[in-house]
Amino acid sequence: MRVAILDDNKVLIGAADQSSVTSDDIDAGDLPTDGTYFWDGEKFMPVGRGRGKPLNPPVDSGRANYLLMRAVINGTPIPQECIDWCAWYERTYG
Q: What b/e string do you get for 30-62 counting C-beta neighbours within 10 Å, with b at 16 or more?
């Protein structure tokens, strides 16, 4: 079973394949784990339903993670794209 990983706002942000599950585990099925679905207590709903349509991020999460890791490796300041992505995430899901 592909078990859902939810953030504090019940937004689907990840999934883990598990062979043993508990009654508290939620099946993520084949849904994307990019923050576009939330758990309403019974089923997953698109984030835009009843929560407003999320704004597009200034840079995709993969690019923001790459830039952040590159800055850490090189010992340089965190790039502005990473800071902008964090601000977008906090406005959208925080």
A: eeeeebebbbeeeebeebeeeeeebeebbbeee
Q: Which residue blocks in 29-79 are alpha helix, DSSP H?
A: 61-74
57 Cβ contact partners less than 8 Å away, ≥ 6 residues apart? 64, 85, 88, 89, 92
pLDDT of 47 reads 82
Dihedral sign for Cα atoms in the order 31, 37, 43, 48: negative
Each residue's pLDDT tens digit, 47-63: 865 555 566 788 888 99
Q: Which two tokens stand for residue 58?
A: 């200034």
